[in-house]
Design a protein that fits this description.
The protein has 419 residues and is of the alpha/beta class. The chain has 13 helices and 15 strands.
Length: 419
């Protein structure tokens, strides 16, 4: 599958899958996103009495044995369960069959910020209590970061390119950009791409709590995540996965596939500023936004909507707003900016993929989901954040922002598909 250096392949989306706190299939997810439903509640997975933050957006309607054998459920981490389930949904939605003949032309790029890290926490406790013989022989393959994508490949039988990248909160967005670039390079005709995360555990919640990154609005979980609102006090942890089938336009057309949207390109930049705090003047985010427009051959006024990183942290939301105003100028005040994290929390390595899913469904449905819990305007965050209610919106071009710990910035452009 060699490609001329002068030829640019069009990359389209033909399948979607989702496991989220507001629905474990795409239709339920999108219905609840349009309705402004929150997935936040008091954490149910462990004792929260001594924790600063006691709330999270947990996936509660998911049964892993619906997607995997009992043996594989025991051997794999919850994040990997999510990845496989969402990937199987997306594959079924695309009506693509993986066979011995085409398996080598199909790849997997599934990213995660933490993979099975929570199992390391549990195993450490088990080692201290019961000794080495209590440790599972599958622990290493459970917790290794590439277990997410490798397990999807094993389960589905793909033998094309396979990759996992860890870009913290930008991982899910980068999976789509990485897959797009692989297809552009001619390495595959089809890529199963997405992000998965499940890190709601005592140690992780305690660690983020000590960073003062999490909301402590424990008495009102569903109103705790409030991106761009003046009274935001941190993000609400979440878990989720979203999967996409990406393929060349020619391949999709040849098999008569339904095309949801088109990946137009993107840009990855770094801040070189701080491991957790955003660069105050948003230079990395500005470069990612501007670079994406250049890569796609678009101008600022071509952009119809921004699916923001919007974590609900005091510094992060302000920095993102500043970057948008710097890049888009007056147009920043004339395009909707929404944050899916207001409803599903911050799902870290899955976050960008979830926002991309909302963008694709928004393009298809002519609707943009709201930023819920927006009650008190912040003078430093003065854009149109689609407050509290979904809105009809003709989206031909959407940008998806994802800005990760370590200063990694990924912006992805998704557009309406036309022949």
């Amino acid at each position: 599958m060699e490609q001329s250096t002068n030829q640019k392949k069009r990359v389209v989306i033909t399948g979607l899958g989702a496991i989220t706190p507001v629905g474990s299939d795409v239709n339920t997810f999108w219905k609840n996103m349009k309705a402004g439903k929150s997935g936040a509640d008091v954490i149910s997975q462990f004792d929260i009495d001594r924790h600063f933050s006691k709330i999270a957006c947990e996936v509660k309607d998911f049964e892993p044995t619906d997607w995997l054998s009992k043996k594989m459920v025991k051997r794999l981490a919850r994040s990997t369960h999510f990845a496989i389930a969402s990937a199987k949904q997306a594959l079924a939605d695309s009506t693509l069959d993986i066979t011995d003949e085409n398996a080598s032309s199909i790849g997997v790029v599934f990213n995660s910020g933490g993979g099975g890290i929570t199992h390391m926490e549990a195993a450490t406790k088990l080692l201290e209590e019961k000794g080495p013989r209590a440790i599972s022989p599958f622990l290493v393959t459970n917790i290794m970061l590439n277990a997410v994508s490798c397990s999807v490949s094993l389960e589905l039988g793909t033998t094309g390119p396979l990759n996992t990248s860890a870009l913290a909160c930008a991982s899910g967005n980068y999976a789509l950009l990485d897959a797009y670039q692989m297809i552009q390079r001619g390495e595959a005709e089809v890529i199963i791409a997405g992000g998965a995360e499940s890190m709601i555990s005592p140690l992780i919640i305690a660690a983020f709590g000590r960073m003062q990154a999490l909301s402590r609005r424990n008495d009102d979980p569903q109103r705790a995540s409030r991106p761009f609102d003046k009274n935001r006090d941190g993000f609400v942890f979440g878990e989720a996965a979203a999967a996409f089938i990406l393929e060349t336009e020619a391949h999709a057309k040849a098999r008569g596939a339904r095309i949801y949207a088109e990946i137009l390109g993107g840009r990855l930049t770094s801040d070189a500023f701080h491991l957790t705090a955003p660069e105050p003047e948003g230079r990395g985010a500005i470069a990612a936004l501007s670079g994406t427009l250049v890569n796609c051959g678009k101008t600022t006024t071509d952009v119809d909507a921004i699916f923001a990183h919007g974590t609900s942290t005091p510094l992060g939301d302000t920095a993102e707003t500043f970057a948008l105003k710097k890049v888009f100028g007056d147009h920043a005040y004339h395009m909707p900016v929404t944050s899916t994290k207001s409803q599903i929390g911050h799902t870290l390595g899955a976050a960008g993929a979830i926002s991309a899913l909302a963008a694709v469904k928004g393009i298809e449905d002519g609707m943009i989901c709201p930023t819920i819990n927006y009650e008190t305007p912040d003078p430093e965050c003065d854009l149109d954040y689609v407050p509290n209610e979904a809105r009809a919106c003709d989206i031909n071009l959407a940008l998806i922002n994802a800005f990760g710990f370590g200063g990694q910035n990924v912006v992805l452009a998704i557009g309406r598909y036309s022949n």
